[in-house]
Amino acid sequence: MLDKSHKPTWTSFTEATPEDWAAVEKYEEAYNAALPDRILDAIRSLDEDWTPYPVNRYQHSLQAATRAWEDGADDEIIVAALVHDTGDILSPYNHGELSAAMMKPYVSEKTYWILKHHCVFQGFYYNHHFGGDRNARDKYRDSPYWEDCRYFCEKYDQCAFDPEYPTKPLEFFEPILRKVLSRGWGHMELAETAKD
């Protein structure tokens, strides 16, 4: 349990003692343990009342994850399908990169790449309606994950707007999400220094 009675007195990192950092680490462990709950809340926040789509983004996310699960995708890809649009909450014009950054410490390079680039690959289905290039995804043809992202968008994302589809509830995916989030490598800056 954290000692809430002692308020730190340091005002910059250079003043913090090893004991101060131990308290920070203890706090972060507790805070970070609640990450799955915050992500679940973010997914729930996509359940808006009105949408120009046949289903809202919450239902879309659940349906995409259901399609991935039914296709026998691995846990990471199921979770990617579940969270791929959560970046819309804070970054609607760059939501793929935000969703990818959120999941980077917990997923493979392939899953991270799919999340980061799914927006460009989705554009294949609608960019031409807005005067854009539907083949913009082709600039990534040299990536070893190009086909994986194309498949993700075709089979799980672009087709997950069917109001009649037998979609699984969020509670079904919660243990899968928690499992994926339990295997993260921690602070990215520490992981980067470990690679050097």
Give structural notes.
Helix content is 53%, strand content 0%. The protein has 196 residues and is mainly alpha-helical. The longest helix has 16 residues, at 18-33. It is globular and about 55 Å long. The two termini are 34 Å apart. It comes from Leisingera caerulea. This is Phosphohydrolase.
Which key features would you list for this structure?
globular, mainly alpha, 196 residues
Strand content: under 5%
The outline comes out as globular
Task: Name the helix and strand elements from N-terminus to C-terminus, one letter apiece.
Answer: HHHHHHHHH
Q: SS-based structural class? A: mainly alpha
Measure the end-to-end span: 34 Å
Biggest sheet, in brief?
none
Rg on CA atoms, Å: 19 Å
Overall pLDDT score: 91
Number of strands: 0
Helix content: 40-55%
Low-confidence stretches: none
How large is the count of helical segments?
A: 9
Q: Which helices and strands, and how do they pair?
A:
Elements: H1 18-33, H2 35-44, H3 57-70, H4 75-83, H5 95-103, H6 109-122, H7 146-157, H8 170-181, H9 188-195
Helix pairs in contact: 3-4, 3-7, 4-6, 4-8, 5-6, 6-7
InterPro entries: OP_Dioxygenase
Protein name: Phosphohydrolase
